[in-house]
Amino acid sequence: LAQFAYISSHDLQEPLRMVASYCDLLKEDYGDKLDNTGREYLDFAVDGAQRMRALITDLLTYSKIGQKDLELSRVSVDEVLGLTLKNLEMAISENGAEVTHGPLPSLTCDPGQLGQLFLNLIGNGIKFKGDAPPRIHVSAERDGDEWTFAFADNGIGIDQAYAEQVFTMFQRLHTRTTYDGNGIGLSVCRKIAERHRGKIGIEPNVGGGSIFYVSLPEGGTS
Ligand code: ADP
Question: Is 54 in the pocket of ligand 1 (CB under 6 A)?
Answer without folding.
Answer: no
